[in-house]
Automatic annotation (TrEMBL):
Main localization category: cytoplasm
InterPro entries, per the entry: eIF2B_beta_subunit, IF-2B-related, IF_2B-like_C, NagB/RpiA_transferase-like
Gene that encodes it: LOC110522643
The keyword Cytoplasm is assigned to this record: yes
Described function: Acts as a component of the translation initiation factor 2B (eIF2B) complex, which catalyzes the exchange of GDP for GTP on eukaryotic initiation factor 2 (eIF2) gamma subunit. Its guanine nucleotide exchange factor activity is repressed when bound to eIF2 complex phosphorylated on the alpha subunit, thereby limiting the amount of methionyl-initiator methionine tRNA available to the ribosome and consequently global translation is repressed.
Name of this chain's protein: Translation initiation factor eIF2B subunit beta
UniProt-annotated location(s): Cytoplasm, Cytosol
UniProtKB keywords: Cytoplasm, Initiation factor, Protein biosynthesis
Keyword Cytoplasm: yes
Length: 336
């Protein structure tokens, strides 16, 4: 039956996405862009909306919540997945309110009251059936996907407001958003970029290669030289994995060192982060924000036999992301 085939195909796609998340977000390596992850999550949620069996907004919200819990549990450190699930749930509520003929402002005022008085009964408001609700929700999700595609360009358009001629800019590792930000500024400004290599993955070398191809003067430095070089830097521009609820960041290792050095030398620190990286999570417990990956980057598997012959036990923890790390006190500007 065609309907059964669609459900089977949808289930297989969801399981494949969950397996991808459990492997760290990519089958080809540990470093995957948050923008790509946000788009894939939204594409999958759109597919669930189109192919899953539901008759009311309440049914659809329950399906999205259940699948969203599975996605976030598969990779708790990938906050963009949960952000996209919450955004789609908001879209469903808005489209349901629009189908009922309620204004968005009225619905928001009612929700504040219901939050305190209605409790579980608030879900009863989403049980009414509307014929065109599915089409409206899918159209709104398509608009969200278009918005996600343009986030990097929107941030890059602000580059000339922050970067001036003959400045020395420092960044750490590789961020696609920061790279686009600097390339946009290079169209009308001449400046020098210093890139911390961000060992052991050394993404900084990839960043430097991309910037040099468009004619930006670029220098790669070791992470240990960050503090020594900071005195001649005019601005620090970095990306981030997540902007936490208290204004702090969760970013790649090495970002904390850059932020503290910038604070010591009173150097402005600018963060380039699209809206989907703003998270309601609060850094209550630091260890839950760490993300550990395979240590083969620093110790290849081929060296294992030699190592075992000389050491009885050896534990290597390679941390990719850490809860910064960067507290809100050291951030001067957030470009979204």
């Amino acid at each position: 039956m065609p309907g059964a085939d669609k459900e089977t195909d949808l289930t297989e796609r969801i399981e494949a996405f969950l397996a991808d998340l459990k492997r760290g977000g990519s089958g080809t390596g540990p470093l995957r862009g948050s923008g790509e992850m946000a788009r894939e999550t939204t594409y999958l949620l759109r597919r669930i909306t189109a192919q899953a069996r539901w008759s009311s907004a309440g049914d659809l919200m329950e399906i999205i919540r259940n699948e969203g819990r599975r996605m976030t549990a598969a990779q708790p450190s990938e906050t963009t997945v949960g952000n996209m699930v919450r955004r789609v749930l908001k879209i469903i509520r808005e489209e349901y309110a629009r189908s009922r003929g309620s204004s968005e402002e009225t619905e928001q005022q009612e929700s504040l009251h219901k939050l305190l008085t209605a409790g579980e009964l608030s879900e009863e408001n989403f049980r009414q059936h509307f014929v065109h609700l599915k089409a409206n929700v899918i159209e709104a999700i398509n608009e969200l996907l278009t918005e996600l595609d343009g986030t990097t360009d929107n941030i890059a358009m602000q580059a000339l407001e922050h970067i001036h001629s003959n400045e020395v800019i420092m960044t750490v590792g590789r961020s696609r958003t920061v790279e686009a930000f600097l390339k946009d500024a290079a169209r009308k400004r001449k400046f020098h970029v210093i890139v911390a290599e961000c060992a052991p993955f050394c993404q900084g070398h990839e960043m430097a290669t991309g910037l040099s191809k468009v004619g930006i003067e670029t220098t790669v430095i070791a992470d240990a030289a960050i503090f020594a070089v900071m005195s001649r830097v005019n601005k620090v521009i970095i990306g981030t994995q997540t902007v936490l609820a208290n204004g702090g960041l969760r970013a790649v290792n090495g970002t904390h060192s850059v932020a503290l050095a910038a604070r010591h030398h009173s150097t402005p620190l600018i963060i380039c982060a699209p809206m989907f990286k703003l998270s309601p999570q609060f850094p209550n417990e630091e260890d839950t924000f760490h993300k550990f990956v395979s240590p083969h980057e620093v110790l290849p598997f081929t060296a294992g036999s030699t190592l075992i012959e000389n050491l009885f036990q050896c534990f290597i923890l390679l941390r990719l992301f850490t809860k910064v790390s960067v507290t809100p006190e050291v951030i001067n500007a957030l470009s979204v």
